[in-house]
Design brief:
Chain lengths: 640, 374
């Protein structure tokens, strides 16, 4: 391990002490076989090539496997010799934030959260799922006569609302429509009428299975029978009608819905799809304009319909481009099916030779298909100022300045930031200090050290047992070590550092060693908030205040702070800035070089420069969290 | 595309199976179901002016009318909506913007209506039982006076008249009056009206009434203070409405629009809030505890702590984690639970007893041994 020169002596001492403690604590743990530690949730990097066969690999095994035989006799658990991933590292290479790391993915990459969750689930004990009691009626598989229905009803354990429950289970099973008809016939003959509820469910069955003439009949019956229709029936009729030649009537039904409530995006989507299906592009676009005007969020299927419409009829090119720009403005990503339609539409454009290809983007922000450089993740000057004001106004102050801080503290913080030079990196002290307390990342501690210290420990030499336990406790919990390591690493790169923390960090305690803390304060500027104040908002503001070059170190996804922002546009701005400026510790191993996950240099958003379009899209079946961005791109270039 | 009907085996049976018979049955019927429904929902037009039958050819109708129709049809569709609605409720419903908020409000009304109905049914059942008992008595002893222990008109030998509720009220009234003079103050901070919706204010007032009731029945009541109570605010309006103007005037609590910091020395005040970093270890008889009277269905954390910070007051939270194996639910308790805990502490001073009032669903029992004092 290379160390900066002027701290060399101290560091050696510090390192060995740390290793001593660490190894002995591991020994102690293994001896008492307290191996079942609760895993803490941490955004551990999991490679996309994650091999499930190594999932059971524990860090302890790795350490134990390197222990000498004598010390291994003490362990109740043997370790495999072949565990571990021996990634070669060039220790001579200077670390740099912007440098390409062996870790290709960031926390913001789509699917990371899902993988992490699965990994956590695998590690957690699986509780058996109790099957829920099924108390539904089984629908018959062929039409029954009235008498058969009657007997079925009488034998059922719960005869009231038998008809509604029966047809509901038919819906769930997708039973043949004639069976439902026979039920309706029985109920009509039995009671002389049919309830609206029953008809509604029957209608759902008809629309679902595409019996159009049946839908028309139902429409006539329900219209004559009831003065108005409820929203559910109207939606079903719209859906049913828009697939047939009577699709224009769906527009009338839509008008009727509008009287009571705003129609749903799906209602609009169905009518638009109907118009497109029957080649009436103008109506479709008029409806789309109305939907947008009402401030509704269109479904992806609606866009799909419009692109398909553009495929069969020329024109409306501006409208379709506007859709793409709308996706850009609202940070919406098309799904794979829609992306295919977009590609098909571009391909179909006459007099223009668009070449579409499915592509990915390399970490430097270059499209692997057309080598074009993608938009930078950096914010423009106006956006930056706007975001800074919003974070100060809404996140820190909010409606009540006392919620997160006090006016005095805010004032002193503002002065502090003004007085100091611009920072290069702002560290969330508590967040960094809390990483991997349990050390569940793979440990690659120097085995000789471990053996030496452990054997020394066994001989009882230079260490009393009483003091030993306290040292172990310190070794497991010494937060400040991690903080110091991160700070030292960043200082080595010659960066101006700010560490944000809370006042209790300054009080010497078991986990906040005074000496280490003073070292941190020598290497970096520090600002400590009150213990009951929030520190994250200050972190965000300090970073924003320092300017565009400044990054912050935290594993926090800042979702609660993002939620304090008033409108979607500002939230998206915040997210973009966060992706471009947040450094996440990829994994922490005591005594090893601190590494960060790479910051993406490009923005994942629908983008064009006239001659080409780059559209990120969500893969089918892949789940993406709100704080993640897709990894796949549709690249469209115009080869004139 | 219509699927042709398959020749099912049922056709050959002696009972001919006509699958479409229900259509003709339905077509023969005349519309006229919703008219009754409309009457039920009430309204200024009386729901009878539906000359324009059918969906088409409708002239413009008022949003209130449209809302009424919506409720009727949702009722038909089996959604959870009330059977009767007042005009005021319909107005509130029409003003709600989104479909989900409408549904939520209707569900609330429906549930309320259900409670009312079941209550009424129980009452009637009791009434019927009572009248039956009276008849029974009359059959056994015609003309005999009813009432416990009357035997053939002979008076019972007792040294007390029947202990009526009125006597108890008088006793508790004296106690409360005594507390008003000598009791330890307990402040309810009513400054959260702005952060609450109408529903939440109603819930808070219900809880405050319970607080007053529990306090009145205690052996050694607190002297309750309702501070920051704005004279023209919704809070006060709701309180007066629920208590009745006369009872509210006679209530043995101090309600004031002044702040608690103006009434008591700042050092004596302790603001109780679940967000506080300090744990309340012992109940101090010389302190004035403040409870923020607020219900937040939409979770707004840290409001009362912010208030306490603003006025530089001491804060404390209950030692729930030290005594209870907390399972689920938020650590903020209702006002009546709070006052019961404080009353128990005041009388006995034992946390285990006091924390019996924490809802059982939220925790998994008490810790066996006393927690380690750090």
């Amino acid at each position: 391990m290379r160390l900066s020169d002027h701290r060399h002596a101290f560091f050696c001492r510090h390192e060995t002490a740390h290793l001593t403690v660490y190894s002995s604590s591991i020994l102690l743990l293994t001896m008492s076989s307290l191996l079942i530690l609760k895993t803490r949730i941490c955004l551990k990097y999991i490679s996309p090539l994650f091999n499930p066969s190594t999932a059971g690999f524990t860090p302890l095994n790795n350490v134990i496997s390197k222990l000498s035989v004598s010390s291994r006799l003490l362990c109740t658990k043997g370790g495999s010799r072949h565990a571990g991933n021996n990634r070669k590292e060039d220790r001579q290479r200077e670390f740099n934030i912007r440098e390409r790391l062996p870790f290709p993915k960031s926390v913001f990459a789509a699917g990371t959260a899902k993988r992490t969750a699965e990994y956590q689930k695998k590690r957690a004990e699986e509780e058996p799922d109790f099957p829920r009691k099924n108390k539904r009626v089984e629908p018959p598989d062929h039409p029954l006569t009235a008498s058969e229905w009657k007997s079925l009803k009488l034998t059922s354990p719960n005869p009231d609302r038998f008809d509604v429950r029966m047809i509901s289970s038919m819906l769930a099973d997708g039973t043949d429509i004639n069976v439902a008809k026979s039920l309706l016939a029985y109920v009509a003959m039995d009671t002389g009428t049919l309830s609206y509820e029953l008809l509604l469910r029957y209608l759902t069955l008809c629309v679902g299975s595409g019996h159009h003439s049946e839908v028309f009949d139902m429409y006539d019956i329900m219209r004559s029978r009831f003065r108005t229709l409820d929203t559910g029936a109207s939606s079903l009729f719209i859906k049913g009608f828009s697939r047939t030649e009577r699709w224009k009537e769906a527009l009338t039904i839509l008008e009727n819905i509008k009287r009571a409530i705003t129609p749903s995006p799906r209602n609009y989507g169905d009518t638009i799809a109907g118009a497109v299906l029957h080649g009436d592009g103008d109506t479709a676009w008029a409806l789309y304009a109305e939907l947008m005007e009402k401030g509704l969020i269109p479904n992806q299927e609606t866009w799909q319909a419009l692109f398909q419409c553009g495929l069969s009829h020329q024109g409306h090119e501006d409208g379709l481009q506007a859709i793409l720009l709308h996706m850009r403005d609202n940070q919406i990503y098309p799904e794979e099916t829609l992306a295919k339609d977009i590609k098909a539409w571009f391909d179909s454009l006459p007099e223009q030779k668009w070449i579409g290809s499915w592509s990915t983007v390399d970490p430097r922000g270059v499209c692997r298909s057309c080598q074009a450089e993608l938009e930078s993740i950096q914010l423009s000057r106006e956006e930056y100022t706007q975001l800074k004001d919003r974070v100060m106004g809404d996140v820190i102050q909010g409606r009540d300045v006392f919620n997160k801080t006090t006016p005095e503290e805010l004032e002193s913080f503002k002065n502090f930031v003004k007085r100091k030079p611009a920072f290069d990196v702002v560290i969330d002290g508590l967040n960094v200090a809390n990483i991997g307390i349990k050390g569940n990342q793979s440990q690659t501690v120097d085995s000789n050290e471990v053996v030496e210290t452990s054997s020394r420990m066994i001989n009882g030499n230079r260490m009393h047992l009483s003091s030993f336990s306290s040292v172990i406790a310190k070794g497991l919990n010494t937060y400040v070590n991690k903080l110091l390591e991160v700070v030292s690493e960043l200082e080595r790169q010659g960066l101006v550092i700010l560490v944000l923390g809370r006042k209790h960090m300054q009080r010497p305690s078991r986990s906040w060693d005074r000496h280490d803390m003073s070292l941190v304060q020598q290497k970096a500027h520090c600002f400590f908030t009150d213990n009951i104040s929030e520190d994250d908002p200050f972190l965000l503001y300090a970073t924003l205040h320092s300017g565009n070059h400044c990054n912050f170190v935290s594993r926090d996804l800042m979702r609660d702070h993002k939620a304090c922002l008033p409108d979607g546009a500002t939230r998206r701005l915040f997210f973009k800035w966060q992706r471009g400026h947040q450094l996440v510790l990829s994994s922490y191993t005591p005594g090893k070089r601190v590494r960060f996950q790479r910051i993406l240099s490009y923005d994942t958003i629908v983008q064009t420069n006239g001659g080409s379009w780059h559209i990120p899209y969500d893969e089918n079946g892949a789940e993406r969290c709100t704080y993640e961005v897709p990894q796949k791109w549709l690249c469209l270039t115009n080869a004139k | 595309k219509d699927v042709p009907l398959p020749q099912s085996k049922a056709d050959q049976t002696e009972e001919k199976l006509d699958l479409d018979i229900w259509k003709s049955v339905m077509r023969l019927q005349v519309p006229g179901v919703e008219e009754e429904e409309e009457e039920k929902l009430g309204g200024e037009e009386g729901g009878g002016d539906c000359a324009a039958g059918g969906v088409t050819g409708q002239e413009e109708i008022s949003p209130l009318e449209a809302t009424r129709e919506l409720v009727v049809m949702w009722r038909h569709a089996g959604k959870l909506v009330p059977e009767t609605m007042t005009d005021e409720e319909l107005g509130i419903l029409a003003e709600l913007q989104t479909k989900s908020s409408k549904k939520k409000y209707l569900k609330y009304l429906a549930v309320k209506e259900g409670h009312k109905k079941s209550h009424k049914q129980k009452q009637e059942k009791k009434k019927a039982e009572r009248s039956e008992r009276i008849q029974e008595d009359n059959r056994i002893r015609p003309g005999g006076l009813r009432g416990g222990g009357e035997e053939e008109g002979e008076l019972r030998n007792t040294f007390l008249l029947q202990f009526w509720g009125r006597s108890l009220d008088k006793l508790l009234g004296w106690r409360s009056a005594q507390a008003m003079v000598f009791g330890q103050p307990l402040v309810f901070d009513m400054s959260y009206e702005q952060q609450m919706t109408r529903r939440e204010v109603e819930n808070t007032v219900s809880q405050l009434m319970e607080v007053e009731g529990w306090n009145r029945r205690a052996a050694d009541p607190f002297h309750l203070h309702f501070c920051n109570l704005q004279p023209d605010g919704g809070y006060r309006r709701e309180l007066v409405k629920r208590y009745g103007a006369e009872a509210w005037e006679r209530l043995l609590v101090t309600s004031t629009e002044r702040r608690h910091v103006d009434l008591f020395p700042r050092d004596d005040l302790v603001y109780l809030t679940a967000d506080s970093p300090n744990v309340l270890r012992t109940f101090d008889n010389s302190k004035v505890y403040i409870v923020g009277s607020m219900v937040d269905r939409s979770i707004q954390s840290g409001l009362s702590l912010a208030n306490a910070k603003r006025l530089k007051l001491n804060t404390a939270r209950l030692p729930l984690d030290d005594f209870l194996q907390w399972e689920t639910g938020a650590k903020n308790l209702t006002l009546d639970q709070m006052v019961r805990i404080l009353l128990t502490l005041k009388e006995r001073g034992r946390w285990e007893e006091a924390l019996e009032h924490v809802p059982k669903r939220k925790h998994d029992g008490f810790y066996q041994e006393k927690p380690q004092q750090d």
